[in-house]
Amino acid sequence: MSPLPQSGAHLVNSLTALTSPSHQEWLEQTLHLALTHRQQGGRPFAALLVKEGKLVASAVNRMLEAGDPTRHAEMEALRDASQQGPLKGAVVYASGHPCPMCLCALVMNGISAVYYAFDNADAAPFGFDSSASYDRLRLPLSPPPLPLIKLPSPIPASALYGSQHE
């Protein structure tokens, strides 16, 4: 992976300079954003929303900063992107598997697929597992309501979710 961007603006500039980024490249940029946000004291989650091969929104989890439990990265990306028009057919790249709230919002907005790096089993040792919420809501993920595609991560889950002192 290339050096970490210092802000979302740098991330956008680096992505728009790429020609036809692959799913893996979009996901790696999402992980860069999540790592940067974690290093700045935020929660270790980020999402990019891409439509027709162009970045429409980049977002991080703002729960801590806003004191609002709905400020997940995917929700933030949806909020930002929806200001630019319909989202049907867009793709979301997320650092982690979407929680039920985010997945529902993605489905309701016509997102065509989600590519992510870490699933609930990867996140569970660090307390970032949403499978209990899926269970309580009795929401099976088989079959998924839209394609949920886990891609290989160039970093281990511990690098993103582990202790700030690692």
How would you describe the overall organization of this protein?
Residues 1-10 have low confidence and may be disordered. The protein starts with 7 loop residues before the first helix and ends in a 5-residue tail after the last helix. Strands 2-1-3-4-5 form a 5-stranded mixed sheet, sandwiched between helices. The chain has helices at 8-17, 23-39, 63-66, 73-82, 100-108, 120-123, 131-136, 157-161, and strands at 46-51, 54-60, 91-96, 113-118, 148-150. It is globular. The chain is built from 8 helices and 5 strands. It has a single domain (8-141), classed as 3-Layer(aba) Sandwich (Cytidine Deaminase, domain 2), CATH 3.40.140.10. The protein is 39% helix and 17% strand. One of its GO terms (molecular function) is zinc ion binding. It comes from Aeromonas lusitana. InterPro entries: APOBEC/CMP_deaminase_Zn-bd, CMP_dCMP_dom, Cytidine_deaminase-like. Residues 21-131 form the CMP/dCMP-type deaminase domain.
List keywords for this structure.
166 residues, alpha/beta, Cytidine Deaminase, domain 2, disordered N terminus
List the helices and strands and how they pair.
Layout: H1 8-17, H2 23-39, E1 46-51, E2 54-60, H3 63-66, H4 73-82, E3 91-96, H5 100-108, E4 113-118, H6 120-123, H7 131-136, E5 148-150, H8 157-161
Parallel strand pairs: 3-4, 4-5
Antiparallel strand pairs: 1-2, 1-3
